[in-house]
Structures are given as structure tokens and as C-alpha cells.
Specification:
Largest sheet: 7 strands, mixed
Helix content: 10-25%
Number of strands: 17
Order of helices and strands: EEEEHEEHEEEEEEEHEHEHEEHH
Distance between the termini: 44 Å
Oligomer: single chain
Shape: globular
Radius of gyration: 23 Å
Strand content: 15-25%
Length: 364
């Protein structure tokens, strides 16, 4: 079905399309916009620009048209690679009905509440305020202040690598407890991590948003259906925690170690990947503290769902390294050999069934 052109509102030199206040697609010729349903929707989008795709209240329409992230009050940066369409997807649901936050900015809800949560956990109930660097001087003389260095509050603090190595080490946030005289007392590092997706979910997005979909890049190769990129747990998240954890445990004033704030499903995947139960420790310089969050149910239109704190677990960098490098949770012996033999005997490649979870790979 192709929506009637009369329902469209074209602007920006005819390059962007909206339908009833919903952001649409980019097209040089509006008449070329056609709706396409691909019949295979492994991911369901549950939040766009902070609200349900079904929310058609005036406020939400205004936010979508402006392309504003409601959690940072800045323009959203999430676009589809092929078309450049600003899609603003915050949260998706997997075929197993597991809701996963797929944009780290979503974790900055409630005026960056997670910063206060972590600061209170690290510095105690005497903490009175978490402030940006710009307010340090004007608040001098006040007790219980923690300064947040991070995106949007003050630049990330980077430490160059040793020797001739290029690059630098940093955390998403540094929370620094300061005295009444603005002297550093102690600090903690904070990483904020959601989970990205694989494949292309632009058709699903267009379908749910009621927006026309036209493929923008002609490719002979069929696009993969969308799913959560759980393999990043192995490739990126755990190695990153080990590297940065080692950096911060060598800092004399980093007395509570490093915090890792993440959606609950990501935390579960990290623990599941390790294949063994980590040992629990108190907060300490070599500590690595997982704090995980979900989302509370929606209550009313034009209302952002609150974060739901669901738990915390502290281990150490060394304990995480031992678990990651352990021989537990490995596939059966000679399983790769069996796979090769099966592939040699089968002339046709076995196709993955729709919505079927991929087998765990053994890459990096």
C-alpha cells in the first residue's frame, strides 16, 4: 500500500518526509516513496526519540519533527547508514520478548540520574550534589560536591598511552569528589554501555512508524535481518573493561575502582559469557562494579518511562580476567571438526530460519 501524497508534508528542499508529524525518509522525488514490508521483523522497536512509536501526542510529534533527544536535549545523532534518515531509536525488543536499550543516551534519563546514583554509591549519603565543571568555582565553600567530567558536562579526561603508542585512555565519565576548597579528595571512573544492533532495521522502523520505505542503496547481496549484536560482549565490552580497569586501579585516588552502567540484558550476557560465577568483593581500587537498569512500564502518552534500577555486583579486574580466560563455557571438544565435516558433506548451505538465534561464534 502506498500512502496518498496528499498526506505528506515535505520540507528541507523536498529531501525529508513527515507523515502526521512522524519523521520520514529522504527522497529526491516524493512520488518514488513506496511502502515495503519485508515480512521478517526479528526486532520490534519500542521507543523512538524516548517515546513509544504509537504515541501521537502533540509534544511527541514536535520532538520527532525536531529530531531532539529528550535525554540530552540535543539533536539525536542516530541515522540509518543508507539513507541518512534520523531515526532516534532508543530501545528494541527481541524475538524472545527481551527489551534492550540500544542507545547509551537512553541511560541518561531523569537528568542524568545514573551519575547521582553512582556518586552516592561511591562517596556515601553525605553527597549533596553532582555538578558540571563550570559550577566548581561558583559553588566553592559548599560541602558534599562531586564534579562530573563527561560528554555534555565537560570534556572527557584523557590520559595518553605510554611510550610511542598512539591514542589515549579515558572513561565516559569521571566523578570527582572535591573539598570545600575545591581540592580533589577521590574519584571513580564510569563507563556507560548499551548494545548496538546488526543487520538493517530500517524496514521495521518504517513499518512501525507508518512511514514509506524505499531502499536507497542497490545491493546484489540481500541485507541481513536485524538483531542485537551480542558478540560485542566478547569483542569489545569485556576487553575494554579489563584494559580500563587496569588503568584506573593504579590511581591512588581512585579508591572505589570503576563502575559499569548497562541495561540488564547486557549485564546478563556478560555474566553468561564468563561461564562461571564471579566472586563478589567490596568497593576497592581494583573493583569493577556492574550497575544494571531496565525500564518501568509506560503510564501515559507523552510520558517518558523511568529507569528501573535492577541490581549491582562488584568484582575485581583480576577476577574478571581469570573468568574471561578460563576454559569453562567452551564448546565440546572436536566440535569444530564436526562442523567442517558436516559442511563438506552438505552441498547446499543451510539457511538460518527466520527469528532463529545465531550460534555463538568463537571470534575474538
Amino acid at each position: 500500500m502506498t500512502p496518498s501524497p496528499s498526506r505528506f508534508a515535505f520540507y528541507m528542499a523536498g529531501l525529508q518526509v513527515t507523515i502526521n508529524g512522524r519523521i520520514g525518509v529522504t527522497a529526491e522525488d516524493p512520488a518514488s516513496c513506496t511502502f515495503k514490508y519485508n515480512g521478517n521483523m526479528p526486532l520490534t522497536i519500542t521507543e523512538v526519540f524516548g517515546y513509544s512509536p504509537d504515541d501521537q501526542s502533540p509534544l511527541v510529534k514536535e520532538i520527532r519533527t525536531a529530531g531532539t533527544c529528550p535525554f540530552t536535549s540535543k539533536r539525536c545523532i542516530k541515522t540509518f547508514r543508507d539513507s541518512g534518515v534520523l531515526h532516534g531509536t532508543c530501545t528494541v525488543k527481541t524475538p524472545s520478548d527481551e527489551e534492550v536499550i540500544c542507545c547509551p543516551k537512553r541511560l541518561y534519563a531523569e537528568k542524568y540520574r545514573i551519575l547521582t546514583d553512582v556518586a552516592l554509591e561511591a562517596f556515601g549519603p553525605e553527597l549533596e550534589a553532582v555538578i558540571p565543571p563550570s559550577e566548581v568555582e561558583e559553588s566553592k565553600g559548599q560541602k558534599g560536591r562531586a564534579v562530573a567530567f563527561g560528554s555534555g558536562w565537560g570534556k572527557e579526561l584523557r590520559v595518553p598511552k605510554s611510550g610511542d603508542q598512539k591514542g589515549s585512555y579515558s572513561a565516559d565519565w569521571i566523578l570527582a569528589l572535591i573539598s570545600e576548597a575545591n581540592e580533589l579528595i577521590e574519584f571513580v571512573a564510569l563507563e556507560v554501555q548499551s548494545m548496538d544492533t546488526t543487520g538493517d532495521y530500517q524496514p521495521e522502523w518504517c513499518s512501525q512508524m507508518g512511514v514509506p520505505y524505499t531502499p536507497y542503496v542497490a545491493k546484489k547481496k540481500k541485507k541481513k535481518s536485524s538483531n542485537i549484536n551480542w558478540e560485542n560482549v566478547n569483542k569489545r565490552i569485556i576487553p575494554q573493561l579489563l584494559t580500563k580497569g587496569n588503568v584506573f586501579q593504579r590511581e591512588n585516588l581512585c579508591r572505589k575502582g570503576m563502575f559499569f552502567v548497562t541495561p540488564t540484558p547486557v549485564y546478563k550476557r556478560v555474566i553468561g559469557r564468563l561461564g562461571t560465577k564471579l566472586s563478589e568483593f567490596p568497593l576497592q581500587p581494583s573493583g569493577l562494579t556492574f550497575r544494571y537498569y531496565g525500564l518501568k512500564p509506560s503510564s501515559a502518552p507523552a510520558t517518558i518511562r523511568e529507569l528501573a534500577y535492577e541490581g549491582q555486583y562488584t568484582t575485581t579486574v583480576e577476577n574478571l580476567k581469570e573468568a574471561f580466560n578460563s576454559t569453562l563455557n567452551l564448546p565440546p571438544m572436536n566440535s569444530i571438526t564436526a562442523k567442517i565435516q558436516k559442511a563438506l558433506q552438505s552441498p547446499k548451505k543451510l539457511k538460518q530460519k527466520p527469528n532463529e538465534e545465531k550460534e555463538t561464534s568463537i571470534s575474538g
